[in-house]
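Hi L.,

You mentioned the student needs an example of a multi-chain input paired with its predicted structure. This one should do, with 714 residues in total across all chains.
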Amino acid sequence: MTVLAFDTATPATAVALCRSGEPPLEARDDPAPGRRPGHATRLLPLAVDLLRRAGIGWADLERIAVGTGPGTFTGLRVGIATARALARARGIPLTGVSTLHSLALGGLAAEAASQPFDAILAVLDARRREVFVAGWRPSALERGGEPFLSARALRPEALAEQVVELGLSPVLVGNGAVEFRSVLERSEALIPEGGSPLHQVSAIHHCRLVRALPGGDPADIHPEYLRLPDAEIARRSARP
Amino acid sequence: MILALETSCDDTCAAVVSTDGEIRSNVISSQGVHDRYGGVVPEIASRHHLELIGAVLDDALARAGASLEQDIELVAATRGPGLVAALLVGFATAKGLAAAHELPFAPVDHLHGHVAASFLAPRPFEPPFLSLIASGGHTLLARVGDRGPDFDAIAQTLDDAAGEAFDKGARLLGLGYPGGAALERLARDGDPLAFEFPTGERRAGLDFSFAGLKTALLYRVRELGEAEAERRRADLAASYQRAIVEALSIRVKRALLETGLGRLAIGGGVAANGPLRERLGTLEVELDVPPRELCTDNAAMIASAARYVDALSYPDYLDLDVYASGEQVLSAR
Amino acid sequence: MRCRQETDDPRETEALGARLARALAPGDVVLVAGELGAGKTTFVRGACRALGVSVPVTSPTFTIGQRYPTGGPLAVSHLDLFRVADLAAEEPDLLGDYLRADTIAFVEWPDGEAEIAAFARIAARVRIEHAGGNRRIVEIE
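Structure written out for the whole complex:
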């Protein structure tokens, strides 16, 4: 199966092209600190680069896969709007992949780590001093299995407490793990060094998960915002 | 045929228009959910755009009896000005649709779109003419010498937009959002000459200003006291509306005189206002008043404008971004 | 700059804005509160002029924010958060585009100070109140 996968939930724009029997191709844009994410401007050019490198065209794609977050709202919408448009225009199925799941799957490569671990937690910086997090047992990851810790937004302090309460010795991956290392390392958590690629969302892992996930109608794929703007309703009605 | 998307504010729009300007479909989904907030909330508008855009697009193609693969030669979308997060939903969708079939793509300025509503069949209004664009976000006069995309903005608002004056006036009178339509309805039962509000007649120049009018309404409401203001709400609305209409038409008249143009076209949400349409109808000029659904935000006008934009061929448009403010257009001043 | 002053007309409100502007540095945010028609945009216009903004300073209600050039490296942002009832539920990028290190920003209807403070230094809080006719009481702290 020929899959074009991408993710725009984090500041990075991560794209991969995966074909049966061929090594996966990857292209990405990681904005320098202080620079705006390039989702709107870099996503399609990176995808076209990969098609060109593989010597194939849009008509050869059999599946689109897109990261559904959680992550930055605008980034998610650019990714999902683009994915739906491509899938709809080509008449091919679209698969939504949890960005946290893909990140955790990539974290399995930490197996070479110095100490053993019993869980992988994907931790993304949700800003406002919160993280988006979900956790998997290593055995469940490849099978597209359910997380034992479902996706949520938390203060890093609360996450550290949960890790202690659950008695976990986890590996933590993702830009949130790096950002809040000092808080999170108060638990038994192992966090790879800051420059490690394990912390990057890579669409190659989206491709791996596509095998375990169904593809469907592009209209059925929605962003996982996690934060709902319900509070606005109360705030607005309280205002004179 | 041209497929166009427009998501710059709170209406999710898709349209199919033939290359000679005939509307094959023009679908508008108004979100309606913003009423309770007293205005459009960017994050909520953007979420709704993403949920609605697929169905609106399918509907537009189905009503036109067109298929993306066989019939669409050009894809267009509003690039700005507007709410960035909202614009991006339509813009990313349109770029993706175009890319997947390696079609050319036309990025369209929203204001050029409002002007280009006049170029649609069956009665295209030919330049040169003076254009008044008045909406919640924009109030400007432009000298339209040809079909665009560039035109000469000769006046704009110095403070609030005309539509904003309607919305804020409505708020002061305790009406809901969107205020324009509610205020127009209430004004029907009122006396437009009951109260005197400033129209800026004595201020020189072509630029508009509505902040003083808004403040005048606030003071009048306060002077009357709560009970009396409530009792005379319709009179206040009618008089206030009349002042906005006069403020607009005074400057339109001046601009017609100054430019020597004898033709006028109007566009934007405020151009859907009945009394304004009537008032401008009394000016002795050739007047183009598009139907209401082509004055408020819509994608048919974007498709119309796309015909006069230098379309980019695949893959030259893939890295285009949207823009929030109208500097591009106003730099012509 | 701290003061509580009565202004007799919009020109004086603008002048007070200009006076505050001269005490500001890039990265500063000024919160401007006051009810509808109080003259928030008037105050901001005066400040913008003093900072070198020559384009019209118009209401930013529609696009939430405007960025004005000054002819130099400094930019001036002007935001109206009336419609943004709950900043915590909005995309942080909404503010990030306007509150930057190279920018002096003025924020009307500034609910959600914590979110604003995450991006920039709050340099002053301005409150404008009606005092009858064109008169206003302007309080800066």
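You could point out the following to them. The first strand of chain B starts at residue 2 and ends at 6. The mean pLDDT of chain B is 93.

Best wishes,
N.
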